[in-house]
Structure formats: C-alpha cells, structure tokens
Amino acid sequence: MKKESMKQVVLVTGASTGIGNLTARSLADAGHTVYASMRNIGGRNAGHAEELLEYGRSNGLDLRGVELDVQSEASAEAAVATILREAGKLDVVVHNAGHLVVGYVEAFTPKDIEHLFDVNAIGIQRVNRAVLPHMRERRSGTLVYVGSTTSVVVPPFMGPYVASKFAADAIAQVTAYEVGQFGIETTIVMPGPFTQGTDHFPNASRASDVERSSGYAALDPLVKRNEEATSGLFTPGVDAHPKAVGEEIARILALPEGTRPFRSVVDFTNAGVEEVNEAARRAQENFMNRLGFGELLHIKTAQSAQN
C-alpha cells in the first residue's frame, strides 16, 4: 500500500501506445493518480484509452484518460483545466508525446521538419505554458522530459528527429534554470533505442520528397538494416524493453523533493551517454558559475529557502 504522502497527480502525454502507455501503467502501479493523455480519445484512440482504463479498474488503480493534442494550445489548456477541476492539483508532467522519422535529411521538406518540430519540441512548450502557472503558484512540481540518447550519439538516417530531440532537450534545460527558482524540479530521462514493445520504428514517417530520396539510393541497404543494426547493440540476454523507462520515472518520482536527478539514462546499447552527460554537466556548471548565475543550477525548494 502506497503512503498517501507519496501519491502525486501525474499527466503523461502521448500515452496511447509505447513508452507513454507503459509509463502511465507504471506510475499508476506506484500509487499515483495518472492522467494518460492522447489525441482523439473518443475516436481513433478510444480502444487504447479503454485498455488503460480497464487496466486501472482491474488492478484498483487511479488511472484516468484525458484528451490532449500537443499540437493545440487550446487542447493543452483544456486538459490541464480538467485535471485541476477533478484532482485539485497537478504535481507532475511527463512530456512523452513524440514521433519518429526515418530517411535522408535532404529529402525532408521544410514542411516535413516543421511538422515534426511542432510535435516533438513546440508541443512541450504548449503543455508547459498550460501547467506552469499552477506549479509556480504552488511553488512545487516536477517536469519530466522523455528525451533521447540520439541527442548525444547522433545516429544516421533520422536527421530531423535527432534535431527535434536536440531542440526539446534545450527547451528542458533552459526552462529548468527559470522554473527551479519557483520550486519546480526537472528531470530529463534519456531512453536509448528499443526494437520491441513500441511502435516507434514500424510507425516512423518517411521523407515526403521521393525524388530527392532516390538520389541517395546507394545508401538504401544501410537504411534497410538500421533496425537490425540497432538490435545488434543490445547486450545478449538483457531484456531491452521500454517498460524500463516507465519504471525509472516511477523510481525518480519516489525520491524526496529536491533530490531527483537532472538526467537519467535508460539505455541497453552501452553507448557511453552517461560519460558525455557528466562531462557536459561539469562544463555547464563551470560556465554558469563564471557567469555568476550558479544558483540557477539548483532548485529552490521550501526546505532550501529556510536554510
């Protein structure tokens, strides 16, 4: 039985399938009130929503559904308003909604890339703008961003996706400087690739300019074996399943306020991302201290304000 003091109200974006769906389940299992959000909750995603609700009913969990399209500011505002009306507060947002594209960078039109950034990066800003006034007023809250190890290792044939995850990571970092002064924590969880348990690869979009793609036909065999090559990176015998991401987010949210890690890597390919993160952290800390803004690296909790 979870302690009531540990129970938090959590919004998970992009929870219809994959990591978002598994994370909603893990957080509900941990005893939180979870709002699993998705587009078209009464239409195309009605089946996914009902599966989640049934999982909650069957296991005695507080797992709820809410309509939220991260490409609509009005939708984000309405979803947050619904949560505040029903639950009275919103403690955590898990920014998970995203889309994968595969192909040659030149073959993606500006509109292709604009659409991807709108989902993977600007969608985060829409949701943050909807929830941050409430969190700032309470001087409490946690923003969890489901990032990607691709923003460190930069794999081939996913250029616009990688660029959008870089952008999302930057939004998370710079927002953290500011909201941390109002008691709002930030954690960037960086999953590595997964080839099971998610529709990420099967549902990936392709570049719309087929003619430009044909100019790179000599590289097609490399693209074709991309998923197979990724699978070959996993340590033999290890269960590289995306449920590990939800479990890690649940672990992080169970930690005391003010002690949650800024970054956490969930990667079964041994890509060395942790070492790069640590080097970047040291450089960032040195730079911020030299600027005289070192305090922005630390969350200002009610406890720290008293010390």
From TrEMBL:
- What domain of life is recorded for the organism? Bacteria
InterPro entries the UniProt entry points to:
NAD(P)-bd_dom_sf, Sc_DH/Rdtase_CS, SDR_fam, SDR_oxidoreductase
Pfam families, per database record: adh_short
Q: Which Gene3D superfamilies match?
A: NAD(P)-binding Rossmann-like Domain
The record's comment on protein family reads: Belongs to the short-chain dehydrogenases/reductases (SDR) family.
Protein's UniProt name: SDR family NAD(P)-dependent oxidoreductase
